[in-house]
Amino acid sequence: xxxxxxxxxxxxxxxxxxxxxxxxxxxxxxxxxxxxxxxxxxxxxxxxxxxxxxxxxxxxxxxxxxxxxxxxxxxxxxxxxxxxxxxxxx
Length: 90
Prior knowledge:
By secondary structure, the chain is of the alpha+beta class.
């Protein structure tokens, strides 16, 4: 399996619109530098087994932070961040 984690951490980039999208999807009001720090920490703290490449995107699922990141595998550009649905345990 390829080492997506180190490549993404070294080359991650952002578009101007993605900051607003992340704040909206995660229901936060973070500044650009806070978002970049949060994304870096999520990627760094996620086990490589939770990196899944499907088509042109890499999905990074961090259950501890309850977040899934979507990153373009060709450009290493973050596309979005989504909250995971919490399942009710019986």
